[in-house]
Design goal:
Length: 96
């Protein structure tokens, strides 16, 4: 079980959030540019009707062309994964 999943389970069981889940986390320097790219793309995303619109390959291609950025295929994959995770976190959860 990944550490994050374990810590989330602890938080759910005890009602207290472990310190490791709170606060800022430092990005590995080798990936900082991908996070910056994601922030740029996310801030320019098109509005969705009922939820956040995903960042499309066309959005990434247009952004790369306009900014001169040259993301590798792996970096494009990371951008898409970051977007998926971001949209999951930003989607309102139903109240129980």
């Amino acid at each position: 079980m990944p550490l994050r999943a374990h810590l989330e389970q602890v938080a759910k069981s005890t009602g207290e959030v472990p310190a490791e889940l709170v606060g800022e986390h430092e990005l590995p320097e080798a990936l900082a540019h991908v996070w910056e790219w994601f922030c740029e793309l996310s801030n320019a995303r098109a509005p969705g009707a009922f939820a956040l619109a995903p960042i499309s390959y066309q959005d990434i291609e247009a952004w790369a062309r306009l900014t001169g950025a040259q993301p590798t295929p792996s970096e494009v994959g990371l951008l898409r994964q970051l977007d998926d995770a971001f949209r999951v976190e930003m989607t309102p959860k139903p109240k129980k």
